[in-house]
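Sat 14:20. Reprocessing the chain from the morning session after the first attempt stalled halfway. Input below, unchanged.
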Amino acid sequence: MKTRLKQLRERHKLSLRDLGKKTGIDFTILARIENNEREMRMKYAVVLADYYKVSLDYLLYRSEDDIKNKFGVSFDEVQKILDERAKTFKSKLHHKVILKIIDMAEEDLEIIDNLLERMHVESY
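Finished this time. Tokens:
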């Protein structure tokens, strides 16, 4: 089962050992999950989703199609755009700037707020 575990861990600049210490999950289990050598048990998924403040759907790639259908871009593509802009401005982007960058309609604010929360970007 494909997960975003490695992607999230690397984004937060953690080693497997560091993540294991912070979550209480043995780093060898985490490594096997990342390498698709072991299925992620629900108890690990819940702990990891809580630690990274993401939904289980996001952690387990279940919400990607919903995001892509709604916004026309994947969550990862939005994250790349935000990362690039953040590098340019050398700080996190304000919610209103993000709205202009990805040119979203005002009625999508609730969904955008959820995305921003998952990306750990402060909203207005």
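The CA atoms of residues 95 and 123 lie 5 Å apart.
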